[in-house]
TrEMBL record:
This is Glycosyl transferase. The keyword Acetylation does not apply. PANTHER family: BLL5217 PROTEIN, GLYCOSYLTRANSFERASE. The lineage of its organism: Bacteria, Pseudomonadati, Pseudomonadota, Alphaproteobacteria, Rhodospirillales. Transmembrane segments: none annotated. Keywords: Transferase. SUPFAM superfamilies: UDP-Glycosyltransferase/glycogen phosphorylase. Residues 348-363 have a biased composition (Basic and acidic residues). Residues 18-119 form the Glycosyltransferase subfamily 4-like N-terminal domain. It comes from the Bacteria.
């Protein structure tokens, strides 16, 4: 199939450091290419891919100190994709609701994976309007607040099978917290849980500008506690050792996490997860197999005492069965086939697109014709 992947521009694909959505776009894109599909990736210019890369910004917007309005390049990207729509059987967007209005009006063969939270009041009227737009959830839990959306399927995230692997002899002498420092992620709870359990905690995390004050006021003073080691933001190459040698990953979230990529990263490393029962956690962590799902800090401390009952090999096998990039790509290919069949886009030409856009708009739209 001829597939366009439309990535957010805030991070490179894959991200240099922290970044969930762009990382999943990378894993999906590379797996689709490996399976023989013709994939075009619209992303920042510092992205690395085996697909055809069409750069929509010189570098990741988060790392570009000149950019003051990050929305403008992303809207321009949506227009540029529309102009090249005749090249693709399907357009897969990862920009949440940004493409809805334009692409519906043009009748483009597209679907959107929603990567963020949907339990926000301001989103309800928007999804009430766009009930016909095909969307994909990354967990069943994510879609609960927005039942009226045009859901095609739930597709759980996946990782390349050999990206992260368990160490042969894990030390298991510390607990791990990996991700982003923010109130909803619960790093303060992780520190308290480790303290109560009498275990060392290593924190590998980034601090966004929006959470800087909370970090300085709440978390930073706790880093002085003797059982806490602050590592900071780490890259992909460091995750296997960090997670693989941890006794467990602590995931004490206090918000409806749509997926929580770090949970399956830990599973790939054979590391069990101790997670609060919020959002998608119970869909990802199999209680008593790949970790323990608990309700609060007291439950987390009690679960840590049960870690010897878990087989770290079984944790990895659970990952292999449920969360590989190959499994994710297969699920998306089924959806792409549905979209292409509905729109009749297999083998579509530029003139076909022009005909559709002329009938769906009040005035002709520019179409980039193939040579």
């Amino acid at each position: 199939m001829r597939i366009a992947q439309i990535a957010p521009l805030m991070e490179a694909v894959p991200p240099k450091f922290y970044g969930g959505t762009e990382r999943i776009v990378s894993y999906l894109t590379e797996e689709l290419v490996a399976q023989g599909h013709e994939v075009t990736l619209f992303a920042s210019g510092d992205s690395i891919t085996c697909a055809e890369l069409i750069p929509m910004a010189p570098r990741a917007l988060r790392l570009d100190k000149v950019i003051r309005d990050p929305l403008a390049p992303q809207l321009l990207m949506l227009e540029k994709v529309a102009q090249q729509a005749h090249r693709f059987d399907v357009v897969h967007c990862h920009l949440d609701y940004l493409p809805f209005s334009l692409y519906r009006r043009l009748g483009l063969p597209f679907l959107t994976t929603l990567h963020g939270r949907l339990d926000l009041d301001e989103l309800k009227p928007l999804f009430d309007e766009f009930t016909d737009v095909p969307v994909v959830s990354i967990s069943d839990s994510q879609r609960k607040p927005m039942q009226q959306a045009g859901w095609m399927a739930t597709v759980h995230h996946g990782l390349p099978a050999n990206l992260l692997t368990p160490p042969r002899a894990p030390s298991c002498d510390y607990l791990a917290f990996l991700g982003r420092i923010s109130p909803e992620k619960g790093p303060d709870a992780a520190i308290r849980i480790a303290r109560e359990a009498g275990m060392k905690l290593k924190i590998a995390a980034k601090v966004d500008r929006a959470d800087r004050v909370w970090f300085e006021d709440v978390v930073k003073p706790m880093l002085a506690e003797p059982h806490v080691e602050w590592i900071g933001e780490i890259g992909e190459s460091e995750k296997a050792a960090f997670l693989g040698n941890a006794a467990a990953l602590l995931f004490p979230i206090c918000w409806p996490e749509p997926f929580g990529l770090v949970q399956i990263e830990a599973m790939a490393c054979g590391c069990p997860t101790i997670a609060f029962n919020r959002g998608s956690v119970s869909e990802v962590v199999r209680d008593g197999v790949s970790g323990f799902v608990v309700e609060d800090e007291i439950g987390a401390v009690a679960a840590l005492a049960k870690l010897p009952s878990l087989d770290r090999g079984a944790v990895r096998r659970d990952f292999d069965a449920r969360f590989t990039a190959a499994r994710m790509a297969t699920a998306y290919l089924d959806l792409y086939a549905q979209i292409a069949a509905e729109h009749g886009t297999r083998g579509r030409t530029a003139s076909d697109v022009e005909s559709v856009t002329r009938t769906r708009t009040d005035r002709p739209l520019a179409v980039v014709r193939s040579s």
